[in-house]
Amino acid sequence: MDNPQIASPARTRAIMERYNLTFKKSLGQNFLTDINILRKIVAAAEVSTDDDVIEIGPGIGALTEQLAHKAHQVMALEIDDRLIPVLGETLAPYDNVTIIKQDVLKADLKQVIAEHFDGQHRLKLVANLPYYITTPIIMHILEGDVDFDAIVVMMQKEVAQRLSAHPGTKDYGSLSVAVQYEMDAKIAFIVPKTVFMPQPKVDSAIVYLSKRTEQRVKPKNEAFFKQMVKGIFLHRRKSLWNNLQGLYGKEPETKAKLEQVLADLGFEKAVRAERLSIEEMIQLADGLFAKKIAGK
Ligand code: SAM
Question: In which residues is S-adenosyl-L-methionine bound (predicted)?
């Protein structure tokens, strides 16, 4: 190959200058310039020729290139049309890469995947996410109902900690529950801010999401469960009891039903939502649903 790899400060600068480009802060453009970090990300995702990989936000192609070395096929969705010709050039040596100009939040992931991959390979999602929309992207991925074998994504360290947090810790909240309801989540490693161009203000972390090892008992009504989870974390410092009343009302009849459900499950009134495991939240939602308690 004539060109040096994309991921280095010198090459990144050269590419940006040649195309007369500036980094768009509004699109979360902090490009990775450290080849070792990129290799670690690809290794964490255990990408091999058995895998088709979807990437969100290829930038100038630093991660895409490393994925292309290992994967069967790579498809990357990039919103910034200025970068499409750049990617055409930087990734020209790789015939297993497809770039699509697309806002990931507007993409029907299931459809895009069906159109571009053969369905014969494992499916992984690997990305250095644009930080300004990390949570919406994660929710969009989970709601997209695609059966990913693994999702390996870089995000702000604080968000990564919330996503992978366990009950009883300060970071555990509705995001942890929303994600861990679907997949097992852990932080693979921390990435210092110095490996990006331009440098972000905070450190980052790689989150590894994998298929749940244990099949989860689903709530009786998933929409009810999800709405309840948001509601019980709405005021983090309030008790579960107070948040439940905020969610379902304070009418004597409602309160009596709430009290009954909490008592049946053996939950103290003063307990906070952050103490409950996802299984306990499902039990709570099922108990409330059975008593026909409805949101206000
Ligand atoms: N993958 C490259 C790297 O690691 O160097 C770039 C990562 S950069 C943090 C995020 C990328 O996501 C940028 O290229 C940005 O233009 C792109 N992006 C931002 N919002 C997007 C969206 N809604 N849909 C698709 N791509 C988006």
Answer: 30, 32, 57, 78, 103, 128
Average pLDDT by consecutive 10-residue portion of the chain (296 residues)?
A: 79 97 97 97 98 98 98 98 98 97 98 96 98 96 94 98 96 96 96 96 96 88 95 93 94 94 94 95 97 80
CB of 61 within 6 A of ligand 1: the answer is no
CA distance to 165, 166, 174, 177, per residue, from 274 (Å): 10, 9, 9, 10
State the pLDDT at residue 96: 98
Closest CA to 151 of 132, 166, 137: 137
Task: Please report, for the chain, the start and end positions of each structural domain, with discontinuous segments joined by +.
Answer: 9-211, 222-290
Closest residue by Cα to atom 19, ligand 1, is 27
CB of 128 sitting under 6 A from ligand 1:
yes
Classify 222-290 by CATH class: mainly alpha
Percent of the chain whose predicted confidence (pLDDT) is above 70: 98
